[in-house]
Specification:
The chain is built from 18 helices and 17 strands. By secondary structure, the protein is α+β, with helices and mostly antiparallel strands. It has 3 domains: 309 residues, no CATH class; 115 residues, no CATH class; 60 residues, Arc Repressor Mutant, subunit A (Orthogonal Bundle), CATH 1.10.10.410. Helix 15 packs across helix 18. The structure holds zinc ion. Zinc ion binds next to loops.
Length: 535
């Protein structure tokens, strides 16, 4: 069943100032994306304006990431976290805030949050505690959120981006999500007649990762977001799916004159539901703030929304201070002590992280840093690559095929690398067959679609034999083929000898056809040329 809230004055909603609630962002995400696609690209003009502002001012950007943790049950009760269930079926007295219900922290939530903190180089608290953050909104059934205020699970760390830039991490803490609201009759609260609420999401565990204001533009902030997403996926901490709202970003942007060390007034940007939106919204804000400063204006500390359709930020509310939330220690959950034994055993379970992998691939396998970054981008692809190498595949060759033909195939059919029929063992065998000159790379390209689609049985070699695709390297064998081609095309031979050397390609093509593409094109061409000029 749905909980329904009716508005007395639907045209002027008293909640219009609270439009940033995650449920609102989620609900309109798809639509916003489509609007963004349809809108004309105003970037050109903005880029010129951006460059002008950047000559005088330096942007200072910090990012807050909210990530849903990959647990089967909620943060403080045992309700399921599965996405897409019937509304209001994954609920209980704890997560809908009935009086007297007592929360119990999810052990796996604590473990994942601690491991994420460790991966970010944070020092993990041996004593961590929860607090109540009080605010009133229909999507918060308890009228407070159980979060962590002054004793978060992790403090002080850093994250190395693909570019090599290191961004400081201020803190990481655990909290719970709010319910999801669906406004009827309008795409937002304002103008809607009533709203439906789904409490399935209320109480889903999140971590909030707060960065230092170390980024200097939209591009860097977007790169940071992508690296956090990658890290979370490597750790298995979160699926990092922005479309389903598992990963959400808020950013703070301010400007200061180049050379200054202090900070300007910062503006918070919400509603950023893609990495492109992160970059565009920050770039817009830099131009807006620079313009205001140049006109002698003042920046207000406020929260703004990114309007993807109009490609601009608009005021949502003047920022409330921390005191507005009246934090106090959560009386129903005692502080949690984490023994050094527990922390050490969690630490020992951490996997190799994206930044470490990128530099190891470049060093150990001699991959270009850019190629290593492409492989590492998706942990499934990295896993696949390592399996090919473990099975004896040459790393550079494996990389070439993975980021070339295989990636192209996956992209076209929207597949993950784990979905394809070509196993790492088959790719390793294929590379070996190429290096042993049993098949040519050209033939492989032809066979690849069948291998990728799984239309293949047995080893690569057995199938190559069965289809008669073994490469021909024997000089005599190729000469015999060329002779046959020449016999069948006497007219063209005459023309060639008469000076029409353009026909060389014709003979190579015919030869290739005759041997089913099994010859090496270069070798074939050389033999064609020799025989045609010799006779
Ligand atoms: Zn529950």
């Amino acid at each position: 069943m749905d909980w329904i809230i009716s508005y007395n004055e639907p045209q002027v909603s008293p909640w219009a100032h609270l439009l940033s609630r995650p449920s609102v962002r989620l609900q309109h995400h798809q639509e916003a994306k489509e609007r963004g696609r349809r809108s004309p690209n105003p970037n050109k003009k903005r880029n010129a304006a951006l460059e002008t502002v950047l000559k005088t001012y330096e942007p200072v950007v910090g990012v807050e990431v909210h990530a849903q943790l990959a647990t089967n049950t909620k943060a403080y009760c045992s309700c399921s976290t599965s996405y897409g269930s019937e509304p209001n079926t994954n609920i209980c007295p704890v997560c809908i805030g009935e009086p007297g219900a007592l929360p119990v922290p999810n052990k796996l939530m604590v473990e994942i949050a601690a491991k994420t903190g460790m991966a970010l180089g944070c020092s993990i608290a041996e004593l961590t505690a929860w607090d109540r953050k009080n605010y009133f909104y229909p999507d918060t059934p308890k009228n407070y959120q159980i979060t962590q205020h002054d004793m978060p699970i992790g403090l002080g760390g850093s994250l190395k981006l693909q570019s090599g830039k290191v961004v400081g991490i201020t803190r990481i803490h655990m909290e719970e999500d709010s319910a999801k609201m669906m406004h009827q009759g309008s795409d937002r609260v304002a103008g809607s007649t009533h709203s439906l609420i789904d409490f399935n999401r209320a109480g889903i565990p999140l971590v909030e990762i707060v960065s230092e204001p170390d980024m200097r533009g939209g591009g860097e902030a977007s790169e940071y977001g992508k690296e956090i997403q990658r890290l979370l996926r490597y750790l298995g901490a979160s699926d990092g799916n922005m479309e389903e709202g598992s990963l959400r970003l808020d950013v703070n942007v301010s400007l200061r004159r180049r050379g200054d060390q202090g900070f300007g007034t910062k503006v918070e940007l919400k509603n950023l539901n893609s990495f492109k939106a992160v970059q565009d919204a920050i770039d817009f804000e830099i131009v807006r703030q620079g313009g205001l400063y140049n006109e002698g204006g003042r920046i207000l500390q406020e929260t703004r929304l990114w309007d993807e359709r109009k490609h601009k930020t608009t005021v949502m509310r003047v920022k409330e201070g921390l005191s507005d939330y009246r934090f106090f220690p959560e009386p129903d959950i005692p502080p949690l002590e984490l023994s050094s034994g527990t922390l050490n055993s969690w630490r020992s379970e951490l996997c190799e992280l994206p930044a470490e992998k990128r530099s190891r691939y470049a060093e150990e396998f001699d991959l270009l840093p850019t190629d290593a970054a492409v492989i590492v981008d998706d942990h499934e692809v990295a896993k696949y690559f390592e399996l090919v190498v473990a099975k004896g595949g040459d790393p550079r060759e494996a990389c070439k095929w993975i980021i070339g033909d295989i990636a192209g195939y996956c992209k076209n059919l929207k597949l993950n690398i784990s979905d394809i029929g070509l196993t790492p063992g088959m790719l390793a065998e294929m590379l070996e067959l190429i290096s042993n000159r049993i098949i040519t790379g050209k033939i492989c390209k032809e066979l690849l679609p069948d291998m990728l689609s799984g239309d293949w049985e047995g080893s690569v070699l057995s199938m190559v034999e069965k289809r008669g695709m073994r490469a021909i390297w024997d000089q005599g064998e190729i000469e015999a083929i060329v002779h046959r081609v020449m016999d069948e095309n006497k007219k063209q031979v005459k023309q060639f000898k008469g000076g029409n050397t353009k026909l060389l390609g014709f003979f190579v093509g015919q030869g290739m056809k005759k041997c089913n593409g099994r010859a090496d094109p270069e070798q074939l061409q050389k033999i064609v040329q020799d025989l045609l000029t010799r006779q």
